[in-house]
Design brief:
The chain has 328 residues and is α/β, with parallel strands linked by helices. It folds into two domains: 199 residues, Rossmann fold (3-Layer(aba) Sandwich), CATH 3.40.50; 102 residues, Alpha-Beta Complex (UDP-galactose 4-epimerase, domain 1). It has ten helices and 13 strands. Strands 3-2-1-4-5-6-11 form a seven-stranded parallel beta sheet, with helices on both faces. It is globular and about 55 Å long. It binds uridine-5'-diphosphate-4-deoxy-4-fluoro-alpha-D-galactose. Uridine-5'-diphosphate-4-deoxy-4-fluoro-alpha-D-galactose binds next to α5, α6 and β8. Its EC number is 5.1.3.2.
């Protein structure tokens, strides 16, 4: 029996592949390598190709005895999604439809889905729980919500059971130092701050210091990528036990401001990390913090690396050892 990981060469996908291999699972990876990195795959069997290529995907299901799918493959840049919504609907939504159709044909009835806090949009309250309103403020979040809903209707009609995991702010790197975050272009706060410490950027831009928060900068819930990976294994275990479909938030439950992230990064790196206050970035909610009580209770998930300093330290180990990411 094998687990199919789509998008297994990406940031979170590659950490899930590593965690599955550590558990002794057989892993099959599908990735078109448009954004993913071949070197991020620490093992398993890679099929290079696109979910939207029906013949290709049918072959993957025919050649392997797949008992569950973990679905990461998607575009995930909020800014880009606002400029090119068609790309996001095509790759994310249509790509997921193609995957579900092949699962149905092959009789595979378990899927763990990589969702996002962006499905909520501007929160009604914090911490956010899974029953709160979902009203995305960007195309990326809208496509992820559409994917979740599509999977649910395949459950109703065809019994494809799912666990949808809504991540808050993924950060950090694998403890081996072999895999970590490498996006192009990079838009996320932690890697950008660390690029300043590496001398690759002059300063970090702080997008707004006039929010209604203690220090005026946005607060986010940073969760270690390996803790996210562990949650996927637990979610797969839940589906293998025959339990029902579910949606879970994944966050550490701790909120840190942009200024706090920069301060912790100064401490971890020993670099002064100059910061410049700039205008707010469109669509950024002031505070996003998860209630992950359901994941803790029902999945038995405990984020083990929940201190911001530990998360930044692990990211720093990766960036310092791999200043150009996966590119040699
Ligand atoms: N930020 C800066 N300067 C930067 C980059 C980011 O001040 O150069 C700020 C942002 O304004 C935000 C915080 O740092 O307040 C975190 O920003 P990120 O871009 O790292 O992460 P987001 O919170 O915007 O995005 C994350 C996920 C998305 C998801 C979103 C849900 O990365 O995939 O949460 O809102 F859609």
């Amino acid at each position: 029996m094998a687990v199919l990981v789509t998008g297994g060469a990406g940031y979170i996908g590659s950490h899930a592949v590593a965690a599955l291999l550590e558990q002794g699972e057989q892993v099959v990876i599908v990735d078109n390598l448009y954004q993913g990195h071949r070197n991020a795959i620490l093992g398993g069997k890679l099929y290079e190709g696109d979910l939207r290529d029906a013949d290709f995907l049918a072959k993957v299901f025919q050649e392997n005895d797949i008992d569950g799918v973990i679905h990461f493959a998607a575009n995930s840049l909020v800014g880009e999604s606002m400029k090119d919504p068609g790309k996001y609907y095509h790759n994310n939504v249509y790509g997921t439809l193609c995957l579900l159709e092949q699962m149905q044909k092959a009789g595979v009835s378990r899927i763990v889905f990589s969702s996002t806090a962006a499905t909520y949009g501007e929160p009604e309250r914090v911490p956010i729980d899974e029953f709160d309103r979902t009203l995305p403020t960007n195309t990326y979040g809208e496509t992820k919500l559409a994917m979740e809903k599509m999977i649910r209707w395949f459950d109703v009609a065809h019994g494809i059971k799912f666990v949808s995991l809504r991540y808050f702010n993924a950060a950090g790197a694998h403890e081996s130092g072999k895999i970590g975050e490498d996006h192009s272009p990079e838009t996320h706060l932690v890697p950008l701050v660390l690029q300043v410490a590496l001398g690759q950027r002059e300063h970090i831009s702080v997008f707004g210091d006039d929010y209604d928060t203690e220090d005026g900068t946005c607060i986010r819930d940073y969760v270690h990528v390996s803790d996210l990976a562990d949650a996927h294994i637990l979610a797969l275990g839940r589906l293998r036990k025959g339990e029902d479909s579910a949606i879970y938030n994944l966050g550490s439950g701790n909120g840190y401001s942009v200024k706090q992230v920069i301060d912790v990064s100064r401490k971890v790196t020993g670099h002064s990390i100059p910061a410049a206050i700039e205008p707010r970035r469109a669509g950024d909610p002031a505070v996003l913090i998860a209630s992950s009580d359901r994941a803790r209770k029902e999945l038995g998930w405990t984020p083990r690396r929940d201190k911001l300093e530990d998360i930044v330290t692990s990211a720093w180990n990766w960036h310092r050892e791999n200043p150009t990411g996966y590119a040699k």
